[in-house]
Design a protein that fits this description.
The complex is a heterodimer of chains A (274) and B (284).
Chain A: H1 16-19, H2 22-36, H3 42-59, H4 63-68, H5 74-87, E1 92-96, E2 99-102, H6 103-129, H7 132-142, H8 153-183, H9 193-199, H10 201-224, H11 243-267
Antiparallel strand pairs in A: 1-2
Chain B: E1 3-12, E2 20-30, E3 35-39, H1 46-53, E4 61-66, E5 69-70, H2 78-84, E6 85-88, H3 101-111, H4 116-129, H5 146-158, E7 164-168, H6 176-192, E8 196-200, H7 204-210, E9 213-218, E10 221-227, H8 228-233, H9 235-240, H10 247-257, H11 269-283
Parallel strand pairs in B: 3-8, 3-9, 6-7, 7-8
Antiparallel strand pairs in B: 1-2, 1-4, 4-5, 9-10
Classes of the chains: A mainly alpha (274), B alpha/beta (284).
């Protein structure tokens, strides 16, 4: 079941998107997400869709794999669409018993649905094509200026990469302990809420013990390698922009231009009927 | 025949980029009271194989029978199976969670639905079997030494009174003394209680010493399932799978190359000693 959650996972492939500098992808994703919330008409989303579809095409991540990421947020998605669809006031266009759909509701539900799915798919495309290490490297470098106002950027980035690194380890550990307790007849699936909560104790206690043990070992190993924070620290693979990164920035800039242009047209009321 | 595997396949992460064929057409029988050694290099599928035996992993295809019953049949009692086929994972001490040693061992039998008295009796018996003395019963399991913790964890499985005991590298990370203690206790369970034992290990010496039959895994395939001595005669093939024969086997083969009149199927030091003495006697 845990394997079904693809959000935040890395998908190993060799594509131009995988090779891009993480800072480019961070900025691109950031702008993409902002652009989702600009429009009130469908026309804007055509631009968004074209941009996103070509990004998926370039990423070489199978579409099936990307769409599977939606499964984890399906409940939230249905919830949003449901409430917008049935509970917004407006002009009635459909009625059956107590169920009624208004034009405003339908409109909003569609919008929210589109926005939410682009939001999730867009951010998961970034994590599919960027390893957690690259991601924190990119963040660290992009946020470096904050050092001047005494924000410990390196330490935060280090904490983030350790946390990300430990997710698969702890998942594996959970799986192992769960199986070990099941081999002793433990039952995690049946019973009422209280019984189920109680049945988690044999899982959680060893999990915490092992997390602390690992944290302790890691701290020791870092000290043994004379780790002392970010000052004066150099990178084995320093990030530096290449030709393709500048090309990507250009594309993002063009996208931004298109978005702003579309927005202005929408403002002027030219696209009102689309 | 107690355990039968019939063309069992297992594929990890089907349909993703991480897909891996972990078990390929595995078929074998294990008889009651056998002592089986399971060897194979890291990632060869040993752990996956043993987790099939008590139903923790469901095979992608193929069937498994325990005591003549298909464990994938509808309505088959998995909990019952897990109590009959006791599985001790690698580093089992990492699964301890209770406040006292005794409570931790009682966990298994209580899960089987036994009444409290019976469960406690079994726990006590199991702790005696693995040689944990009475003054440790109320200690916290986290205060014990590594070897003691491991024995408590094994007792946690033994308290369910399994017919088959599977141990995944029970001696990893223990000192020589702790190692011998655990292996001696396992032998005792085999000889006195007639338990079927499946021992996963990297030590060829242990395998040579204790096991009747040897299963060798390589890249998800079961390459050998023969009596121990027969398998070690193929030591050159074992080396290709990043395994080896016991050192004694190498010594005997070298002696033979030097022209000694010895047979090469000795796998323990005692057998080798007798064989060399015999050869020396016949030379003079």
């Amino acid at each position: 079941m845990i394997r079904d959650i693809t959000i935040g996972q890395y998908y190993p492939a060799d594509s131009i998107l995988h090779r891009l500098d993480p800072r480019v992808k961070l900025l691109g994703t950031f702008l993409f997400i902002i652009s989702l919330f600009l429009f009130k008409s469908f026309f804007g989303y055509i631009v968004v869709f074209i941009f996103f579809a070509s990004a998926i095409g370039l990423s070489k991540v199978p579409l099936r794999f990307i769409l599977r990421g939606m499964k984890a947020v399906l409940v939230l998605f249905i919830f949003t669409v449901f409430f917008n669809l049935f509970f917004l006031p407006g002009e009635e266009i459909f009625r059956w018993g107590i169920i009624r759909i208004t034009d405003n509701g339908l409109y909003k539900a569609l919008f929210m649905g589109i926005r939410l799915s682009f939001l999730i798919l867009g951010s998961s495309l970034m994590t599919f094509t960027t390893t957690p290490n690259q991601l924190t490297d990119g963040l660290e470098k992009a946020l470096k200026p904050l050092n001047y106002i005494k924000v410990p950027v390196h330490e935060i980035a280090m904490m983030m990469s350790i946390a990300l690194r430990f997710i698969p380890i702890l998942m594996e550990e959970t799986d192992k302990i769960m199986k070990a307790q099941m081999a002793r007849g433990a039952d995690f699936e049946t019973g009422g809420l209280l019984k189920r909560a109680k049945s988690l104790i044999p899982l959680l206690v060893p999990l915490f013990v092992s997390a602390f043990r690992r944290a302790n070992d890691l701290a020791m190993a870092m000290e043994a390698r004379c780790y002392r924070g970010g000052t004066g620290r150099t990178k084995m693979k320093p990030l530096c922009y290449k030709g393709r990164d500048y090309a990507a920035y250009t594309i993002i800039a063009i996208y931004l231009g298109l978005i702003i242009g579309t927005k202005l047209l929408e403002r002027a009321g030219l696209l009102f009927y689309l | 025949m107690q355990i039968i595997f019939d063309k069992v396949n297992y594929i990890y992460g089907k349909g993703t980029a991480f897909e891996r064929h972990a078990l390929k057409d595995i078929s074998f029988c294990i008889n009651k009271g056998e002592f089986i050694g399971l060897i194979g290099h890291t990632g060869s599928g040993k752990s996956t194989l043993i987790q099939h035996m008590n139903g923790l992993i469901k095979a992608s295809s193929g069937s498994i029978y325990f005591n003549g019953e298909d464990i994938y049949a509808q309505g088959y009692n998995m909990k019952q199976l897990r109590s009959k086929v006791g599985l001790v994972f690698q580093y089992p001490e990492h699964q301890l969670f209770e406040t006292t040693v005794f409570k931790d061992v009682v966990f298994g039998p209580l899960n089987l639905g036994l009444d409290k008295l019976e469960a406690e009796l079994r726990a006590y018996e199991a702790l005696r079997m693995v040689g944990i003395s009475d003054d440790l019963l109320d200690a916290s399991p986290f205060e014990l030494s590594g070897g003691q913790k491991r024995r408590v964890a094994i007792a946690g499985v033994l308290a369910m009174k399994p017919e088959v005991l599977i141990l995944d590298e029970p001696t990893a990370g223990l000192d020589p003394r702790g190692r011998d203690d655990i292996l001696d206790q396992v032998t005792k369970l085999h000889e006195e209680a007639g338990m079927t034992i499946i021992l996963v290990t990297h030590s060829m010496e242990d395998v040579a010493c204790y096991c009747d039959r040897l299963f060798v895994m390589n890249n998800g395939e079961l390459v050998f399932q023969n009596p121990t001595k027969e398998v070690f005669a193929h030591y050159k093939e074992l080396e290709e799978m990043h395994l080896a024969a016991p050192q004694v086997t190498y010594v005997m083969n070298m002696l033979k190359e030097k022209g000694w009149n010895v047979s090469c199927d000795a796998t323990t030091v005692e057998e080798a000693r007798d064989e060399i003495i015999r050869a020396l006697g016949s030379m003079h």
